[in-house]
Amino acid sequence: xxxxxxxxxxxxxxxxxxxxxxxxxxxxxxxxxxxxxxxxxxxxxxxxxxxxxxxxxxxxxxxxxxxxxxxxxxxxxxxxxxxxxxxxxxxxxxxxxxxxxxxxxxxxxxxxxxxxxxxxxxxxxxxxxxxxxxxxxxxxxxxxxxxxxxxxxxxxxxxxxxxxxxxxxxxxxxxxxxxxxxxxxxxxxxxxxxxxxxxxxxxxxxxxxxxxxxxxxxxxxxxxxxxxxxxxxxxxxxxxxxxxxxxxxxxxxxxxxxxxxxxxxxxxxxxxxxxxxxxxxxxxxxxxxxxxxxxxxxxxxxxxxxxxxxx
Length: 311
Known about the structure:
Blueprint (H helix, E strand, L loop, with lengths): L15 H20 L11 E6 L4 H13 L3 E6 L11 H10 L4 E6 L4 H6 L5 E7 L5 H15 L6 E5 L6 H12 L3 E5 L15 E3 L2 H5 L4 E4 L15 H8 L3 H4 L7 E3 L12 H4 L7 H20 L7
Enzyme class: transferase
EC number: 2.1.3.2
Family: Belongs to the aspartate/ornithine carbamoyltransferase superfamily. ATCase family.
């Protein structure tokens, strides 16, 4: 079992066996975490740096916890207070990180392609924790693991990804992973929030929420990313909820045993009704957070196997 590359920059390009290996390893970590056992010192002597140019409490904390459970020394670099804000370029940052002898580098950046650029300049294994509107690979892995735990498989499932598809790196990574693993993926949203290259992605496109949700096994809601939008791509939040927000009436069109997902943070009453987000049997949103730690442990473990022995 090995990862095909030194880095994890995207889901696009990964083959089904590599994805399955990561999910299987993550499943073993999910069981270990639930057992309450402290983790072995797999990454003892390794340094993991979280370099977040965009805020993200959940993803950063999840990587921090994953690293610590595997025994790594974890450093969170707060970019808002670092020299990056004083005009230091990404390449200057790379030479600083090399001098620190960092082994694993988790990066989130507003520019698509920044992790790929950094991966060419640092000795560390680089993990993309979200870059612009490009990809967020570990989110797709944790979503797939959550689906697989509930449905027993990914192949043949109808997965409806709904809302702001155009600005969502989560949607892109999930589309790549789920179509690769044999799911039937639908994207559902207003025409202004459907990406221009949607047809190329191998998905079915719906602009009517009720048609898009019909007989779905999985309903994945996305956050409206107003910070990435230019101009009025959507009407008021109230109007958006009326047509595209997930409530009991719309969810009734999906399969009776369908599950509801959301990568967070949620805009309650905009893309999802609170009663659905907190539903005791249909919502798996809390479990997604738990699976995030297990998946990130699996990624760190898999990439560390390709690193040279501790320096």
